[in-house]
Specification:
Helix content: 10-25%
CATH architecture: Beta Barrel
Keywords: Signal
Strand order of the largest sheet: 4-5-6-7-8-9-10-11
Protein name: Secreted protein
Oligomer: single chain
Structural class: alpha+beta
Radius of gyration: 15 Å
Number of helices: 3
Largest sheet: 8 strands, antiparallel, barrel
CATH class: Mainly Beta
Amino acid sequence: MRRRDGFAARPRRSRAAVSALSALSLALSLSLVGARAPVFATEATGETGSASAAVLADPALTAAFSGRDLEGVYADATPWSEAYASDGTLSYRDRIGLWAGDWSVMNGRFCTFYRDQGITGGCFLVARRGENCFDFYAVDETSGPGVPTADILAGRNWTARGWYVESEPSCPQEERHLVGL
């Protein structure tokens, strides 16, 4: 998914404005990122965390997203959708348009980057909130998320939340504020 300081741009903004906001927001995000949150792993699932949320490790991230289509919302309720091909390419869509890019998994991070220079990508720690609910927490390549571990385990302060398009979302209803693309 495309990140612009944790919030998606409004549809009326030009690409130049989005690009300037992206650069500013990336600098701000990187300055706010805290120390790496502690995680605990369960070898059988490739997931880390507690019963309320499982932070996905590399094998579970790949299994969860390769060849899958997700839709979701940013923290400000702006909708997005993204298709992750098994060859590492992706297709991202929001109210502004459609973009091609690449996704990868490394060191417990799910990363999405776009081929259009005006669009910022990023890396995310991903917590599985339920059978069909994923919380994405923005991180940089060397640090952990900018939120406390307790927030991740409780499903608070996520950058984006998503679910598989072919199934009913299992995300908490009170936190899903859906609007149309």
